[in-house]
Amino acid sequence: MGSTAEFKNPATSTLFELVKSRRTYYGLKGESPISDDAIERIVQDSVLHVPSSFNTQTSRVVLLLKEEHQKVWDIAINALEGLVTAGRVPREMFENSTKPKLNAFRAAYGTVLFFVDYDSLAPIKEKFAIYADKFDPFAQESNAMSQYLVWVALESEGFGANLQHYSPLVDEQITKTWDLPASWKLDAQLVFGLPASEPADKSFAPIENRFKVFGK
């Protein structure tokens, strides 16, 4: 299965080349190929223009660079060390696997924190009560689109990145450290920096088992 059709707009081909080239990079350096202002524009434009259900605009995003970025992973290291002390995580696993991984994230240039403000959905849930249980998942879907767009755009500009999920271990301390509203619920952390190693090979399940077309 496949198609050799050409697109009308050359920009479409460029878009999909960027999509195909996006990978997960774990080896990152604390350097940037572009200005901090350019990074901020990528994140800000994503916040503004990614769609959301009923235009609820529930995503909240925090961009952390350099020393501020390092604080996130200090928080994560301290949280995991607390689990070791409490006997919930084996010390050997923490020292040999978890801590080196967290230090690798810390060595990067920045982290984008993605939140969802579920409290802001109260009016729309009341107005459309029949769909009330759907709005939280819709908000997560919108947030995921923001994560993906920022990831692709950062890699297009020369960064490597990886997406992490350390909630709820880090949530309280992150909210406190940057004085964020309590209604912002952390969903993911996108770590980015200059690639220091190649990504792992990527395999694909057969497209025939994942895609169907009718009416062609």
UniProtKB/TrEMBL annotation:
Compartments where found: Cytoplasm; Nucleus
Coiled-coil regions listed in the entry: none
Keyword match Cytoplasm: yes
Domain annotation Nitroreductase: ranges: 19-193
GO molecular function: oxidoreductase activity
Keywords per UniProt: Cytoplasm, Nucleus, Oxidoreductase
Top-level lineage group: Eukaryota
GO BP: any one term: cellular response to oxidative stress
Pfam short name (any one): Nitroreductase
Chief localization: cytoplasm
GO CC, one annotated term: cytoplasm
UniProt xrefs under InterPro entries: Frm2/Hbn1, Nitroreductase, Nitroreductase-like
Family: Belongs to the nitroreductase family.
Protein name: Nitroreductase domain-containing protein
